[in-house]
Amino acid sequence: MLFIGDDWAEAHHDIEIEDEAGRVLARRRLPEGLAGITMLHELVAEHLDAAAEPDQVLVGIETERGTWVQALLAAGYVVFAINPLQVARYRQRHSPSGAKSDAADAHLLAEIVRLDRAHHRPVAGDSEIAEHVKIATRAHQTMIWSRVRQVNTLRSLLREYYPAALAAFGTDLAGRDALAVLTVAPSPDLGRRLSQSRIETLLRRAGRQRNLTTTAATIRAALSSEQLTARPRCHPRLHGERLSAARGLGRYGNPDRGAGQAGGAGFWPAPGR
């Protein structure tokens, strides 16, 4: 199970995620709205067991209203609306000064739902509007979780077979730059052959407008650097098709930018082709 403390403000949410032992797994300040909910789902996907269900995520927040709470409920998370006066009492117990801090309150809310949730009421999302939101939010959540897991799988494959790609794109393997370049250069050999002008063309087609030359030069330097390489453990064509699954990453979270905009159609070519 995961326990989340959510200290909300008008424009942002300070959140803390804990496990059942009280170990802090993540602390973030998330923006209000769709972008923030997306980031929260990504954090949950990073730390929740793949076999777990959404109702194993418990959230403590000082409100039971608003689209943010409805989105949490629609995603299947168990939400506890903690009265602000009760939070103030908890704060006084844990801090002699009783001073309020967004990060500290997020920690306090996570501790409340982890240790004392039996004394608080879960929020029920049973309105007709909530049911409509639930369908869209569950689909959104599922795609985000799937994207995170696909990126993790891709990172593992590249670490074994194509470390230069990790050096070129770092953690942004689902970004448009990475998708555009890896679509046409899914192997170390093809990556080393890419010229500066070719990379610039790929990045421009993918939608990059700023820092085009600098970014292309950085990518080319990483892909052409001397690094250890290894042959794929499976049949080359199968290996290329496994890598090609990452092309679908661009579809999640931004329905207006599909993976097709990042490069050509079809599977990535097999390594060495």
Annotated CATH topology of the largest domain: Nucleotidyltransferase, domain 5
Given the C-alpha coordinates, what overall shape results?
elongated
Uncertain segments of ≥5 residues (pLDDT<50)?
Answer: 251-273
Helix content: 40-55%
Query: What is the beta-strand fraction?
Result: 5-15%
CATH architectural type of the largest domain: 2-Layer Sandwich
C-alpha-based Rg, rounded: 22 Å
Strands in their spatial order, largest beta sheet: 3-2-1-4-5
Topology (SSEs and partners):
Elements: E1 2-8, E2 12-18, E3 24-31, H1 34-47, E4 57-61, H2 67-74, E5 78-81, H3 84-94, H4 102-115, H5 128-161, H6 163-169, H7 176-184, H8 188-193, H9 196-205, H10 212-223, H11 236-244
Helix pairs in contact: 1-5, 2-5, 5-6, 6-10, 7-9, 9-10
Which terms would index this structure?
11 helices, elongated, alpha/beta, Nucleotidyltransferase, domain 5, 273 residues
Protein described:
The protein is α/β, with parallel strands linked by helices and 273 residues long. It has two domains: 2-126, Nucleotidyltransferase, domain 5 (2-Layer Sandwich); 156-262, no CATH class. It has eleven helices and five strands. The chain has helices at 34-47, 67-74, 84-94, 102-115, 128-161, 163-169, 176-184, 188-193, 196-205, 212-223, 236-244, and strands at residues 2-8, 12-18, 24-31, 57-61, 78-81. The chain has a five-stranded mixed β-sheet with strand order 3-2-1-4-5. It is elongated, with a radius of gyration of 22 Å. Residues 251-273 have low confidence and may be disordered.
